[in-house]
Amino acid sequence: MASFDITDPLSFLKEQMMETLRLVIDPELHINIIDLGLVYGIDIDAEKKLVNVEMTLSSSYCPMGESIISAVKNCIEGHYDDYAAAVDLVWEPVWSYDNISDEGKRLLGM
Amino acid sequence: MSGIKQNPGLYKIVVTHYVVAAFCFLILSVMMLFSVKAFTGHYFHPQILAITHMAALGWGTMIILGASYQLIPVVLETELYSEKLAWMSFALFMPGLTALVYSFWVFVPGIHMQSGAILLLLAVLLFTINVYLTAKKKKQETIQEDFIFSACICLCLTAALGAALVFNFTLLIFPQDQLHFLKLHAHMGLIGWFLLMLIGVSSKLVPMFLVSSYQNTKLLTYSYYLIIGALLYFLVDSYLFGLSLRTYLIFTIGAAGITCYFIFIVKCLRSRLRKHIDLPMMNSFMSFILLKIATLTVPFIIYFHLKNNPVTIRFSMIYGEFMLMGWITALILGQTFKTLPFIVWVKHYEHLTGKFKTPMPAELFAENLLKAQTVSYLIFCLTFMPGCYLLFLPLIYIGIAMLMVTAMLYLSNIFTVLFHKTVTYGKL
């Protein structure tokens, strides 16, 4: 899961971007990708104005994978004009139900 | 990387198959309306043969082929080998289907029926080659791959035996009578093609749509070997000796395989993350119940057959109806609205998602139409199947009328999804 270092000057921007990514909704579950725990971290290269989102999918054969990745890029680039976004899709650690936030569980009726 | 790599070519192939299948479903219901009395007789009847092939090929196989071009790359986690091969297969399949169904209906076993059978055989061979070459690109082997590839081989064998049976009408290739081979042809199709293919694909899709935590595939492995074992045993034993007491054993092996699959589905259901089950998934679960009922009719077919009781024919008809018009139809009626809206949604919204608030895939179809379709289909099952068993024509008429309503609602909803206009609800 994403964590923030208070000594990092970009931590506020990272947290802001994380909040922005709540706008990306999983098209099948209708829950945002942050509460689903799909985003593992955000890396910002302030000089190159590049954002790298490290994330996973709920399964490696998720048919909506392309759409979710595209939404993440669109979301960052649409809200942070100067920045270009890239997604680093990782399978370690493997996504599990424990990644889902309490709010996500509530929305899923768990 | 994974996910649907949507491109206009693939979209056209998939959508064409869905639309043609929906029209075939409507035509099928009309054909049934004109053959009501035939449902009270023997299954080896021109109109029943035409209807069965329209249901199995025009409806069931057509939509499975279309969905496969979209889903097999998802299940096998690689891209489709060739779109050209897919189009060639479709171009052979359509005239083949038309020729075969028409010549069964009027029952002229001549050149049209023979060319139809050959065209269909070539079409399914091209499909199988496409699936094989798609799977070959992939390194890791899964049980789903075994299911899917075995199903494709069975489809080719079913079509080959079917073509031989068609030629047998005029050339007398086989020493035994046509009915002896008909049950081999039917089971290779129903169990070998439909059952293996639908288990292979659904065992990936059901956990995915339910977001289930159950990942163990051991039950699927048991299911695969038990079903394949039972099918091969049945084909050899039934070819050499016909139905006998051993057929009960074969049935038990096959039923054990299906039970393993059911347990897998139940485990997925119990460990599902998403508690709410939507209407398309409800339709899919209804299909599993219909498959269970179909399976339960088999011991009666064997029992009455061994007793030389003609009631066996009625049970065989009911079995076929529960398999084709029950299990396969219910599964398609539900899964269409899980898969097609996604395919169309990706085309309309992939580039907009994250920038604008957009509708979700489930909002692309008309919920009310789907509810009405589910109700009318349920009435069909509750009237048509008992009507055929009781040989009660009014019930059969009501059932077929309800099937026509189901087909019209289904078709309208397909067009609702396909003619969806891109809308956004403001910037995010």
Multimer state: heterodimer
> Low-confidence parts of chain A, pLDDT < 50 over ≥5 residues?
none
Q: Could you spell the SSE succession of chain B in H and E letters?
A: HHHHHHHHHHHH
- Main beta-sheet strand count, sense and barrel state of chain A: 3 strands, mixed
- Calculate Rg of chain A over CA atoms: 14 Å
Number of helices of chain A: 3
The share of residues in extended strands of chain B comes to under 5%
Beta strand count of chain A: 3
Largest interface: A-B, 36 and 34 residues
Helix content of chain B: over 70%
CATH topology of chain A: GMP Synthetase, Chain A, domain 3
What's the quick description here?
The complex is a heterodimer of chains A (110) and B (428). By secondary structure, chain A is of the alpha+beta class.
Describe the structure.
The complex is a heterodimer of chains A (110) and B (428). The two termini of chain A are 20 Å apart. In chain A, a hairpin with a 4-residue loop joins strand 1 (39-45) and strand 2. Chain A has a 3-stranded mixed sheet, with helices on one face. The longest helix of chain A has 15 residues, at 65-79. Chain A has a single domain (11-94), classed as GMP Synthetase, Chain A, domain 3, CATH 3.30.300. Chain A is built from 3 helices and 3 strands. With 110 residues, chain A is of the alpha+beta class. Chain B is mainly alpha-helical and 428 residues long. Helix content of chain B is 78%, strand content 0%. In chain B, helix 1 (8-33) packs antiparallel against helix 10 (311-349), helix 2 packs parallel to helix 6 (178-210) and helix 7 runs antiparallel to helix 8 (246-270). The radius of gyration of chain B is 21 Å and the shape is globular. The relative contact order of chain B is 0.10. The A-B interface holds A 23-25, 27-30, 57-76, 78-79, 89, 96-97, 100, 108-110 and B 1-6, 71, 74-75, 77, 204, 208-209, 211, 213, 273-276, 342, 345-346, 349-355, 360-362, 427-428.
